[in-house]
Amino acid sequence: MTERYPTPCIPDALTLGTLFAPHLAEVCRRTEAALEACAYRDLIVHSGTQRPVFQDDRTYPFEVNAAFKVWVPLSDVPDCFIHFIPGRRPRLLLHQPTDYWYKPAPRPQAYWTEAFDIVPCADLRAARAALPGDLSHTAYLGEDSGGLAGASGLTLNPPRLIRHLDYPRAWKSPYELACLRAANRLGADGHRAAAQAFAAGGAEFDIEMAFLAACRQREQELPYNPIVALNDNGATLHYQMLEKHPPRAHRSLLIDAGAEFAGYASDITRTYAATPGEFADLVQAMDRLQQGLCTRVAAGIDWREIHRLAHERVAEVLRAADLITCSAETAVASGVTRVFLPHGIGHLLGLEVHDAGGLMRAPDGGDIDPPEDHPHLRLLRTLEPGFVVTMEPGIYFIEPLLAAARADARAPLIRWTHLEALRPYGGIRIEDDLAVTATGAENLTRDAFTLAGTAQ
Ligand code: GLY
Ligand code: MN
Ligand code: MN
Predict the structure, then answer these.
(1) CA 3 to centroid of ligand 1, rounded, Å
(2) What CATH number is given to the structural domain containing 19?
(3) What pTM was computed for the model?
(4) In a domain, 1, yes or no
(5) Does the beta carbon of 206 sit less than 6 angstroms from any atom of ligand 1?
(6) 349 CA distance to ligand 1 centroid (A)?
(7) What pLDDT digit, counting tens, does each position of 241-291 carry?
(8) Per the domain annotation, does 398 fall within a domain?
């Protein structure tokens, strides 16, 4: 985001600054409680390491440690540290090497910087010197950069402390909600441009470029690699190929792409049909199904119930589309719906696209048991106000899953001849981000599409 390309509805520095102070106070409070529960005096969090390519002088794109982004909205600064001692202002040890090959990170000046003591450190030795001499009661989160952790007697990534810090990340503060709204707004701009590129006959590559340009983000700045799948490529759930040539015919586009704002992610999927017809009708049916599921999101709901309900509704859509020969109940009970919808119905969203803590009963309470027939869900917690979740039902025509069903007792339950006509379209997923409230949910994504002035 720059002055030259202002995006309306992205919160300004004044608004963010007002929201950031109470947010940081809450981060400090949570951290203090976690340190006390786990008997540590203080906490060091490493931003991450810039990884070199084997026997080369280039590096891989930098990926920040999410535990660092909890503190500061910096996603592109390797080898920095947060140091927090309860009761004191947090410190940011900012890596500022003397370098003329690469430009060192400038000293940040933004709505959040006043809240930190920022200590420039030319190298790891300077960072070590800026930390207390005795680190025997210190917890350290992140990679052991240059041996700082190993050499200092501190405790590296204590699992119990990590659970105590991850568990409360599910509750988003007003500041975090503002950032997630902004990430959705940027994502909606990207999706609008991507839909236009699809309508113009673009290749997958062109569609992704349109998305990036509209968000004004490089791929490495996005919260995850976009999934831009034309036609039957939509049947690969995390399709990544990005063909540079357009296919002979444009039948469908499944695009799962989000933007990042101040370290927070949006995670948005839309599916488009190139022409009216049966697939377009199915997309509409899935959109109605998705919006129906969104209305069920509220505090007190067990997420596993939403997942089960999604399968019941998908079974009804399959039945109405004449893709199954059995009743909707039988399609769920026999596992036929899992052939078409093999992933979870959503997950927590925040600093990470699959945000931390989705399976926890409590910091010290172990994890919640998944349903036997859906063992790989990413979210099992009962919803509470402040949680942000995705809602992402889908129907896909996935070759290996169909082949397995054709070879077992499910074979007679699927209308194979009819299915053949839809396979070249790949699949459908519709995904929004929802902030849970006491009485329902705010749909961050639909609101963002409305603000972007585009179809949902
Ligand atoms: N974009 C990854 C997901 O939807 O979970
Ligand atoms: Mn998702
Ligand atoms: Mn997604």
Answers:
(1) 31
(2) 3.40.350.10
(3) 0.96
(4) no
(5) no
(6) 10
(7) 999 999 999 999 999 999 999 999 999 999 999 999 999 999 999 999 999
(8) yes
